[in-house]
Amino acid sequence: MENRAGKFIKNGSGKSEYKCFIPNNLPPQPPIIYDDELFYLASEANRFIGRLDEITDILISPSYFVYMYARKEATLSSQIEGTQATFTDLIKIEAGINEVPNDVKEIENYINALNYGFERLENLPLSLRLIREIHSILLQDVRGMHKNPGEFRTSQNWIGGYSITTATYVPPSIDYLNGLLDNFEKFIHEEDVLHPLIKIALLHSQFEMIHPFLDGNGRIGRLLITFYLAYKDILHKPTLYISKYFKKNRQTYYDCLYDIHSKGNYETWIKFFLNGIIETSKEAVTMARKIQELRENDLIKISDLGRTANNSIVLFNQLFDKPTITIEEVSKKVGIAYSNANNLVEKMIELDILCLLGEKKRNRVFVYKNYLDIFSQD
Question: pTM here?
Answer without folding.
Answer: 0.91
